[in-house]
Amino acid sequence: MSLTIQLQTMLSMLAMGAWIGASLDTYGKLTYQPRSFRWTVAIRDLLFWCVQALLVFYVLYQANLGELRGYIFVALLCGYAAYRALLQSVYTYLLDRLIMLVVSIVRFIRKSVYYILINPVKWLLKLTLSLCMIVLTLVWKICLVISSIIWKPLWWLFRPLFQSLSKSKIYGKMVPYFRKLKEKSQSVWKKNDKR
């Protein structure tokens, strides 16, 4: 292995050490880590470290065709330590600001969708329901007026018949049914008048 390839490998491993430090900070900020043990957290952590290992090996393969030497691990550790000492505070500050920006953009989009799409649809549904109730009430009132217009002439027409029936024995048996019918019709009229 030539000196140029060794230097290239050292620099790339230093960069990968810094990358691992930044990835750890990002992973810690973006994921919830409960204090108690959970299998989902363990599997997620294992997948994170598998991805990091694959990235390191890919960069190492690009630098020196995947040849492992002892100084590679030292370079990774030095890169991680350099990140912790020099770049961590700046990176976490920028990461916090980026997360706050993304959260505010998502909130803005949610509010915009609510006020532009959902709120007008709700208002239209309420308006449609109110109009339907008005139409149904109007139709009911018209039906009541029409039935009273039809009922009164029929009452005057069949009144002599009812009076003659009232003197018969059949009427005495039917009086309770007529009273119930009259009470029900009066209660319906009262409810409609209140509306």
Explain what the structure shows.
With 195 residues, this protein is an all-alpha fold. It has a domain at 3-89. It is built from 4 helices and no strands. The protein has helices at residues 3-30, 39-64, 70-166, 169-194. Helix 1 runs parallel beside helix 3. The mean pLDDT is 84. It comes from Alkalicoccobacillus porphyridii. This is Spore cortex biosynthesis protein YabQ.
Provide a compact summary of the structure.
InterPro entries: YabQ. This protein is mostly helical and 195 residues long.
Helix content: over 70%
Bulk shape = rod-shaped
Number of strands: 0
How confident overall, as mean pLDDT?
Answer: 84
DSSP strand content: under 5%
Which key features would you list for this structure?
single chain, 195 residues, mainly alpha, 91% helix
